[in-house]
């Protein structure tokens, strides 16, 4: 559905040193250097996937999304949306895409939300009956009624985001590109947006590529995560796979029905961090040993009553990979 092949984007930026004269010299000589914002990225996203696209500030996330949506032209490489290039077949591709840039609203600031929807419906040439039907579905999903007649500038951030999501969905696109849709929202509004995104993906089958700095968004929504760092793809896979790759320890707390017995010839593979009477905490590195293998060994030591597993904190995992 989304195919990205060796995508690269370079920007030409003026060369200038730190000093005032360096800057003037750069202006006079017109010297430029190439800055590779995105460098040789390839991936594929299938229909119905919910993929997180994460990376530190300046990693190249927005630049990628702008190329996927046809706003920016790649310096080299290709993007195909259902087999078509967003640059060459802009009209057809744009109909399949909904885009939300959390930092910038696509709604008209001084107009009531409804008027923005009318303008967008006209731009996309949406049939009036279809528009009414979609709007009534979206109203239910996003509870638009409470603010649809209010000018955008008077909306709370959460309401504005719901308005923006509705605007992105008005032409019923199959794919949503969401660039920081929860930025600046309080916990309650974040929760509401997350549950909405979940239902857009699960119930309506939308394919979603989500960019965010909020690791809870990623953990709660995405099965797959792609990490971009300095313009290059550093990881593409599951969240658990990322944890394993980084190799931070997993903690397993086990309670036994009676005092456990550790055989004297036990050779390890994991570490016992704490033990007392009928409970113990072990630490294993999933890179070296699977949690199931740890438990298989431990069940020989006594009757297990309860197991509690603590995965390494995802924030910490991301901190390591950046
Ligand atoms: N129009 C431009 N001209 C020159 N450099 C640019 C331009 N747009 C982006 N860049 C540079 O390209 C790099 C990638 O920027 P991009 O906005 O894609 O990062 P990002 O991962 O979205 O960051 P953030 O999380 O801070 O939004 C940065 O170094 C940025 O300064």
From TrEMBL:
InterPro entries in the record: AAA+_ATPase, ABC_transporter-like_ATP-bd, ABC_transporter_ATP-binding, P-loop_NTPase
Report the Gene3D superfamilies cross-referenced here: P-loop containing nucleotide triphosphate hydrolases
Q: Does the keyword Transcription apply?
A: no
Domain ABC transporter, chain residue ranges per copy:
2-255
Q: Which domain of life is it from?
A: Bacteria
Cross-referenced SMART domains, in alphabetical order? AAA
Q: Name one GO molecular function term.
A: ATP binding
SUPFAM superfamilies linked to this entry: P-loop containing nucleoside triphosphate hydrolases
- Keywords, sorted A to Z: ATP-binding, Nucleotide-binding, Transport
By what name is this protein known?
ABC transporter ATP-binding protein
